[in-house]
Amino acid sequence: MTHQIFVFDAYGTLFDVHAAVRRHAEAVGPDADRLSAIWRAKQLEYSWTRSLMGRYLDFWTLTEQALDHAYATVPSADISMKPALLDAYRTLDCYPEVPTVMKALKASGKQLAILSNGSPEMLASAVSAAGLDGLFDAVFSVDPLKVYKTDERVYELVTTHFRAYPEAVSFQSSNRWDIAGATAFGFRTVWMNRTGVADEYLDLPPAAVLPDLKGLTALG
Predict the structure, then answer these.
(1) Sign of the CA dihedral 200, 13, 91, 119?
(2) Whole-prediction pTM value?
(3) Beta pairing partners, 5
(4) How far apart are CA 193 and CA 78, in angstroms?
(5) In the chain, which stretches have pLDDT less than 50?
(6) Is 9 a catalytic site residue?
(7) β-bridge mates for residue 190, sequence order
(8) pLDDT at 1
């Protein structure tokens, strides 16, 4: 099947979640990488626990709370850099191949969308900072639903908007748990295994595994 709708997770897939700390690594201190890893891990953990509890807070709030915890865990990191790190998170670098791949898919007639846990303001800022304005037919945030991935209602945002069956959608994410959720929903899934981590959720496999987005144009 040739897929006409290509949907992308944002954070970790299009945008480098560690770019904010990397941008200020010297000022943050020698444990900058550890701070960044904890920040990302807690950001995701908070989204899952909030969904399970039914006590939604928007993703920007969770991002701030996760950074607070990271600083509490890594006291060697310079806490005066917190405002700069949060500002940098609004304008994360995209991965190098992203603009070229998005433009190639768009030129071939594909419909493109983002489906993200991020709040609308976060996503608008990231897309604009990366120079990707005008490339996406839709940018979906979970915010109207007040629940996070992998709730099936999140993936349903795509099929409702495009009036398409799940199997007509190719969904790309670097997060294996997100790929599992999208596979369970019925999307054709492509896992961007950027860091070469071991597979999991073996009962919900992706249709393809790529090291980055460059191989997408050949999949169709």
Answers:
(1) negative
(2) 0.95
(3) 111, 169
(4) 31
(5) none
(6) yes
(7) 172, 208
(8) 57
CATH number belonging to domain 19-90: 1.10.150.240
Question: Collapsing DSSP states into helix, strand and coil, what is residue 69?
Answer: helix
Distance between CA atoms of residues 149 and 218, nearest Å: 28
Which of the residues 9, 16, 58, 178 is marked catalytic? 9
The torsion of the CA quartet 173, 177, 179, 182, rounded to 10 degrees, works out to: -120
Query: What are the start and end residues of each CATH 3.40.50.1000 domain in the chain?
Result: 5-16+92-219
Look up residue 158 and give its two tokens.
Answer: 């795509």
How far apart CA 183 and CA 167 sit, in angstroms, is 10
User: What CATH number labels 5-16+92-219?
Assistant: 3.40.50.1000
Amino acid occupying residue 11: Y
Query: How far is CA 112 from each of CA 19, 170, 180, rounded to the nearest angstrom?
Result: 24, 10, 21
